[in-house]
Amino acid sequence: MLTLHRARLVLADPAAPSIVDGAVLVDGAVVAAIGSFEELAGGPARVREWDGVLVPGLVNRCGRWLLETAYHPDPREELGDRPLLPSGDLGEERWGGSARRGLQRMLGFGTTAVTGPFDRAAVRTAVARSGLHVLAGDGTPGALSPLENQPFGAAVHRPLTVGGAADFAVFDEWGADASCLATVLGGRLLFRRR
Known about the structure:
Elements: E1 2-10, E2 19-27, E3 30-36, H1 37-40, E4 46-56, E5 58-60, H2 63-68, H3 91-107, E6 111-116, H4 121-130, E7 133-136, H5 152-155, E8 168-171, E9 180-185, E10 188-192
Parallel strand pairs: 1-4, 5-6, 6-7
Antiparallel strand pairs: 1-2, 2-3, 4-8, 8-9, 9-10
């Protein structure tokens, strides 16, 4: 099924000009076309309208630390929603739950790739099931947002290209105060802010 993602601004590649009233046509898990909405509209695709800026998916270079060292509390624990350093061993089941919550929170920041490798079996399973791409990394501590400590160009996993993976995020605006509205990975909407 074809889906046309329309946004106020499409920034498919940090090194290329942005497209005002742009669109990305997705065919399954692949980008079929990138251009202005006017150029791409009118076909058999369903249209998703985003009031924001569509950018390539981001890589969280602190993934190993965030998923194997930090603990992501369950909301029922009333410990907040920020990663914490656990006291003592949590056991595989709790590490798996923590990793699933951490991955969901990362999607909420436009993340489509994380750095590994992952030593804990429960974490490896959670990452594999999430569909996020795993890149080599060093386990550096850091934030859930890939944009917190690095410029946009360094945070991009890979530019959006015709024939490439349909991995992208939509932000309400662009800048330090931007909030992620949606994250699409392999053409599938995995996160949408309510």
